[in-house]
Amino acid sequence: MENQQKQLRFSFPKMFVYLILSIGAFLSIFPLYWMFVMATNHNSAINNVPPAFLPGDELVTNFTNVVNTIEFFGAIWNSFIVATVTTIGVLFLCSLAGYAFAKFNFKGKNFLFVAILVTMMIPPQLGLIPQYIIITKLDWLNDLKAIIFPGLIDAFGIFWMRQYITSNVPDELVDAAKIDGCNNFRIYWNIAVPVIIPAFATLAIIKFMYIWNDFLWPLVVLREESSFTIQVALRGLIDNYVRDNGMIMSGTFWATVPLIIIFLLLNRLFIASLTEGAVKS
After folding, report:
1. Fewer Cβ close by (within 10 Å): the C or N end of the chain?
2. How far apart are alpha carbons 268 and 119 in whole angstroms?
3. 219 in Cβ contact with 232 (< 8 Å)
4. Per-residue pLDDT tens digits for 77-107
5. Is residue 5 a part of any domain in this protein?
6. Mind listing the pLDDT tens digit for each residue in 119-166?
7. CATH no. for residue 181?
8. Residue 46 has pLDDT above 60, yes or no
9. Distances from the Cα of 148 to the Cαs of 114, 153, 218, in angstroms?
10. How many domains is the chain partitioned into structurally?
């Protein structure tokens, strides 16, 4: 009898936690499901009261309308190039800077690090005009380089890498490598990089999603439809007179699929980086 009471005491909190997690999971997944439902239904079914809550049979038709209205695959390819190149650059440059801040002692180190953190509090819209002037002088308007190069360094990425390297790359290991004759870059490449792979995955997901979803800056610097990223191209689905919600949601849904794939590929490393150090042996 006492054992049963103890089991009930321990099971009730677990059931409550699972209930909260289930509700949270439902609230997180429902917008994606609803977007898919709208992408598979005709505009009339979406505008009904109550609207359709089950997938329809207009998935192919709506996506065909998307492809006929905008250069969907070209925009997806442009976004993939921009997001991939920028993410790789951020991972390399931010990890180098983070390693320097974590393991090197130099004059002005703390001041520079605080200055980098301060830039995180400045709204990116304030830098829009200066960046546009620089891009214009470089003659990069309507070129993907105008999106790639400004995003190659990231204040949060430097902060994230510095904190992770400080916690997970022991100073003793670095000192031992120096005694063995390794230079600084070799220590970074052969010792630090294998340790911070989970941090790479986390930063890659965050940066890839940010670049993929960016709308304002690509809208400013890209003029021709052939150079549009997917977020700018999706704007062409909105007509001033006729609003086809099924077509709009179809384009939005398929533009979201690459992000889901990236997250599923890197989610284990993402979770590992967030839980690093939470359980100590």
Report:
1. C
2. 30
3. yes
4. 999 999 999 999 999 999 999 999 999 988 9
5. no
6. 988 888 888 999 999 999 999 999 999 999 999 989 999 999 999 999
7. 1.10.3720.10
8. yes
9. 25, 10, 10
10. 1
The structure's pTM equals: 0.85
